[in-house]
Design a protein that fits this description.
This protein is of the alpha+beta class. It is 51% helix and 15% strand. It contains five helices and three strands; from the N terminus they run αααββααβ.
């Protein structure tokens, strides 16, 4: 990060600020400001969280696997330690999903191999 140099846009900004403040020669910052989005990705990578599967990816795969009818009655809630917890609003959906749990788990593992899903648990609520 020490090798960053001021860009043309930074020089222009510096000239505008010095003109606005009425200062002849203000110091030109050697390090440009960084965007929060850039910093967030760097921090996530350093923390080892960059390779984690997003719940949005699981949600999209879930909708494709269970179909639109069961998707309306269920939602993936949490994904921790390889266990996907799915919330249900009807006991009949729980029964239907328990009957197909092995197939659903296999298809989730095929669709999201990076997630390393070990189990799917269903909860009412």
């Amino acid at each position: 990060m020490d090798n960053r140099k001021p860009t043309a846009a930074m020089r222009r900004r510096h000239n505008l600020i010095t003109a606005w403040r009425g200062v002849e020669d203000g110091p030109l910052m050697d390090l440009p400001t960084l965007r929060v989005g850039d910093l967030a990705t760097q921090i996530m990578a350093k923390a080892g969280m960059a390779n984690r599967v997003k719940l949005e990816d699981i949600l999209a795969a879930w909708q494709e696997i269970v179909g639109s009818f069961l998707f309306k009655l269920t939602r993936p809630d949490t994904f921790e330690r390889g266990i996907l917890t799915v919330r249900l609003i009807q006991p009949t959906a729980h029964h239907a999903l328990m009957q197909e749990k092995v197939k659903i788990l296999k298809r989730l593992q095929e669709k999201l191999p990076a997630a390393k899903i070990k189990d799917v648990r269903f909860r009412h609520g």
